[in-house]
Amino acid sequence: MIHQLRIYEIFPHNKPAFHARFRDHAARIMSRYGFDIVAMWESAGADRIEFIYILRWPDEETKTGAWAAFMADEEWAEIKRRTSAEHGSLVGAVEDRILRLTDYSPVPGRPA
Q: Where is the NIPSNAP domain (predicted)?
């Protein structure tokens, strides 16, 4: 099992539009392709607001295939087009990391 850490820079002026799009559309469409969202957070630093979430995958091959299918989804493409036309860019910089447990890490979801 691997985890994927995603960090999106979001903008104060259209933060509600970003959250509505992710909550009402992205998460729903992602579920079609086997995305397992572990948790989602918002973090505000001195210079930017971030939306952070973690995905759980059985392996990298599954992750890669699911992302390709999601990005090719026609409904998602139309939602992105519509929301971008209405609100402008909803996401700035994106960070994407694969997280692999160390051999001495507690396993998430199991008591240490």
A: 4-106
